[in-house]
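Hey, can you fold this one?
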Amino acid sequence: MKLNKILFCAAMTSILPLQHAFSAPVNSVEVQVIDTNGGTSQLLLQKMSGSMQVVADQLFIDKDTAMIAAAGEDYARLLTEIGDRVFTGYELTDVKLDVGETTQVKLYARPWNKVIEKPLIDLQFSGVEPQTAALLEQRIPALHAQLEQAISGASVDAGDWAGGVLRKLVRSEVQAQLPEFKPAVDVLQEDGRTVVQVVIYPVGQLVRNIRYELRSEAIPNVLLMKLKYKYAGECDKLRGLPVAYVQRHRQELEQQLLEKLMTEPEVKNYQLRPEVKITPGADMGVIIMIESDDYKIWFEGYGDIGRNKENLSGKAHL
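Sure. Predicted structure:
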């Protein structure tokens, strides 16, 4: 009899903690939305999960776990009704609750109709020259692929709320790489195709005018006229950039111009030494000096207005 009492007490001791844990209040909730088609990106699924996280917290936090378990079907039905309203473009097919102090909620969803295939990513830079826009795009090389991956496989009807996710993605990337610019993002349907239109535009004080000069103290400037006109066009491509961007990348912009100059036949053939200096500002200065360690050429001319004949003479120095 005494042994039986000991075994009974031991059994009750092991059962009571389990009963206490099962009837404890919910401390936290983990929500996961799963696309049964498997096409929706994790980025969009995280957005869907976050939307339902608020609802699940209100439903379950501090509620008794035993009560939730007993009414599990009612909670699942309620979550399904809410999810169908929140997730435009999707319907919930099932809800699974794993009740405990950390309650797990799994919501299984599928797109209503068609899904997005091969979206068109239309990335544009506003207010800058096309070649400058191409250089700016090189600073955000992963953005095109990130947008395509984020929206591919999602429901075609999910464009409105998916646009918010894409805007956040683009803002984060632009802020990190091009803080002197701001983006605008729209998700459109054109001719049966999903188009993600991204327009990135400069903000703040802009380069409005460029004071450009190309000259040399070693070579007659008349011999550099071709280069002078060509690089006037190159410098003009900087018009429209934010002054802050030019200040931050001044050395890089100078180096780009210098590298182009070094490929010019005149510079290579005669071992000329170009130098570039940019002075950032709304009225920006660009000075290109062409010097030489091997040559110094100049011309001199004389005139005598008192003579009727042979009144001009000159000298050339090499």
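DSSP finds eleven helices and eleven strands in the chain. Let me know if you want another pass with a different chain boundary.
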